[in-house]
Amino acid sequence: MSTHATAGEIRKWTNNEGKVINAEFVSSDGSEVTLLMNGKEIKYALNKLSAADREFVSKQATDSPKTDKPTKGGNAKTGYMNHVEIREPAYATAKEYLEGANAKAVYDAFAKGNFPKEWDANKGPIEEMFSYVNGAMIVYVPAHYHPAKPMGVYLHVSANDEGHELINCQPVMDRLSLIYACPKGTSNKQPMMRRVKLAVDALAAVKKQWNVDEKRVCVGGLSGGGHMAMLTHAMFPQWFRASISHAAQSYLPGNGGCGHFPGLAVRDITGKDCKDHKWVVISGDKDFNYKEILKTSAEWKAERANYLFIDVPGMGHVNASPEKLEEALKWVGF
Q: How many CA atoms are closer than 13 Å to the CA of 333, on its beta-carbon side?
């Protein structure tokens, strides 16, 4: 029999030799107890714990609600996964994707061709771009994930079709209790609406397999993927709380142009459903986009957006370092 605590509080645990640790109860199978300590799960034999601790574990079984229903996000698989299939779309029809005002406005703009002429990849039937299914994604789930304890998500949109592994950022995901996901097939050569849809479908797939804290979901990306991250965030504010662009500026609508947000006005990005959301750009003076990022950062701040530019000396046109990504994620509230 497996038991699960509901309190999720850190408490002192003492073994038969009098040694004490501070950890959070996760579960017990009747012979071992699983504890969460410093972000990592450890297993310990029940018969080596003090009588008081064994009584505490026993009480969790008594207090835990009994149900025959499966736990939400019951997939307990953790670690790095290079190919996780996106078997179903987030919504059954395009109409359901477009129930939000921002999503519909952007979709309509692309359908009418109201986007910069140099965006060649977007010329074609919008329905075909938005109907793409059967994708795949890279996923990393921290080892201390448990179905009873939801985790946040950092979704990364790649500028290539292979996706970004961001192996060096796995400790950041561990510390912040975030699931990392990166859909494949989102390169700059792909139509923008296909890239947006893959991002949303990837998040939906994560939510079906793992228990997700919907208040801690952020989308990011490198270069053109950074543009897509901010556009996806703007289109689906009900799905995302923040976005992080690595080495890419995003032009706001204005002066007769759409910037990187076709169909939207500034008020659609800084007000209404996005009022309390946050936007981050990370770059440095070795990035060829740096001067434009300085310019657009001033424009975002002038509009009083919840915006942060993290200026990293020596950073080029690359993904942010683990330290700077963690800084950004903490700033957005994770």
A: 17
Q: What is the DSSP string of 267-321?
A: HHHHSGGGTT-EEEEEE-TTSTTHHHHHHHHHHHHHTT-SEEEEE-TT--SSPPP
pLDDT digit string (tens) for 125-177?
777 777 766 789 999 999 999 998 999 999 999 999 999 988 899 999 999 99
The residue ranges of every structural domain in the chain are: 3-63, 79-331
Place of tokens 């990293």: 312
CATH 3.40.640.10 is the classification of domain 79-331: no
Q: What is the DSSP string of 102-113?
A: HHHHHHHHHHTT
**Residues 152 and 334 sit within 8 Å (Cβ to Cβ):** yes
Give buried/exposed letters for 82-93 (b at 16+ CB in 10 A, else e).
eebebeebbeee
- Give the model confidence (pLDDT) of 240-289 as tens digits: 999 999 999 989 987 667 789 999 999 999 887 888 999 999 999 999 99
Task: For the chain, give the number of residues.
Answer: 334
Q: Element (H or E) spanning 45, and its range?
A: strand 40-45
- Copy the structure tokens of residue 18: 């009098």
* Domain 3-63 class, CATH top level: mainly beta
For the chain, the distance separating the N- and C-terminal CA atoms, rounded to the nearest angstrom, is 34
Q: Which residues contact 159 (CB under 8 A, 6 or more apart)?
A: 186, 187, 188, 221, 222, 223, 224, 225
